[in-house]
C-alpha cells in the first residue's frame, strides 16, 4: 500500500502546482490518494502516510467484497430469470446501440438495470445486519426504551424480506421498483443503512456494480451450466457471500467483438498499476 502511495506522490509531484482544487493538470482529476496528499501538504501532522494507508484499506475492505458479491448475486438471479436478463439486455441495446461500450454515466439512463440492482440488494443485502450502532443517549425506537450505550443491530435482511412490507417478498421482481429507481422508498429498503453512519460508498457502489453488471449483460449471452437453477443459498461471512460460487457459460455477443478495442485501452490502464496488486493487501 505504501508503494501505491509513493507512486501517487511521484505522479502528484510531477504535475507541480500547489495541489489545491480537484484537478491536477491537463484536465486530469485527482485520485483519492492525491486528494489526501494535497491535504497532507497542508496538515502533515494529521494526514500522515499511515492515515492515508489505513483510510485506503478501510475503503478496499468495505467496498470490494460488498460490490463483487452484489454483482455475483445479481448475475445468479438473472440466470435463474432469463426473461429479466433479456429485458435488461434490450434496454442496454436500445439506449446504447452497438457501437460503444456502456459507460458509468449511462447507469442513470438505464432504469431497469437500476431496478435489478435494487431488487438484488433487497433480497441479498451485502450488510444484512448493517454494522453495529451504539446509542449515544437514551432514546425510543419502535416504542422500546433504549438506554444510552446500547448496541443496536438493524436486521435489514428481515425488513427487506418481510411479507408485511413487500408483496411476494421472496420473489425476484425488479418491476416492483419501476418509477422508484434511485429513490430510497422510506426505510423498507436500506441496503446501505441510513443517516450519518450510512454507507459513504453508496453512490460509488451503485455506479460500479451497475457498470460491471451492465458490461457483462451488454457483451455476453449467459446460460446456466445445467438445467438446474443456480444455487441461491447464502454462505457464512460478513458480507453474505453465496454458499456456492457462481459458475455459468457465457458467449461473446457480436457487439462485444466490435468493442474489443475499447476494452484493450482499459487493460493498458490497469496494467500500468498491475505490478502493485499482489502487494496491496
Ligand atoms: C454494494 C455495495 C455496498 C453495500 C451493500 C454496502 C453496505 C454498507 C452498509 C450496510 C454499511 C453500514 C451502514 C449502517 O450501519 O448504517 C456500510 C458502511 C460503510 N461502507 Fe459500504 N457498502 C457497499 C459498498 C461500499 C463501497 C464501494 C465503499 C467505499 C469505497 C464503502 C465504504 C463503507 C464505509 C467506509 C462504511 C463505514 C461507514 C461508517 O462507519 O461511518 N461501501 N456499507
UniProtKB/TrEMBL annotation:
<dbReference type="GO" id="GO:0004497">
    <property type="term" value="F:monooxygenase activity"/>
</dbReference>
<keyword id="KW-0349">Heme</keyword>
<feature type="binding site" description="axial binding residue">
    <location>
        <position position="199"/>
    </location>
    <ligand>
        <name>heme</name>
    </ligand>
</feature>
<dbReference type="InterPro" id="IPR050651">
    <property type="entry name" value="Plant_Cytochrome_P450_Monoox"/>
</dbReference>
<dbReference type="GO" id="GO:0020037">
    <property type="term" value="F:heme binding"/>
</dbReference>
<keyword id="KW-0503">Monooxygenase</keyword>
<dbReference type="GO" id="GO:0005506">
    <property type="term" value="F:iron ion binding"/>
</dbReference>
<dbReference type="GO" id="GO:0016020">
    <property type="term" value="C:membrane"/>
</dbReference>
<keyword id="KW-0408">Iron</keyword>
<keyword id="KW-0479">Metal-binding</keyword>
<dbReference type="GO" id="GO:0016705">
    <property type="term" value="F:oxidoreductase activity, acting on paired donors, with incorporation or reduction of molecular oxygen"/>
</dbReference>
<dbReference type="InterPro" id="IPR017972">
    <property type="entry name" value="Cyt_P450_CS"/>
</dbReference>
<dbReference type="InterPro" id="IPR002401">
    <property type="entry name" value="Cyt_P450_E_grp-I"/>
</dbReference>
<dbReference type="InterPro" id="IPR001128">
    <property type="entry name" value="Cyt_P450"/>
</dbReference>
<protein>
    <submittedName>
        <fullName>Cytochrome</fullName>
    </submittedName>
</protein>
<keyword id="KW-0560">Oxidoreductase</keyword>
<dbReference type="InterPro" id="IPR036396">
    <property type="entry name" value="Cyt_P450_sf"/>
</dbReference>
<dbReference type="Pfam" id="PF00067">
    <property type="entry name" value="p450"/>
</dbReference>
<comment type="similarity">
    <text>Belongs to the cytochrome P450 family.</text>
</comment>
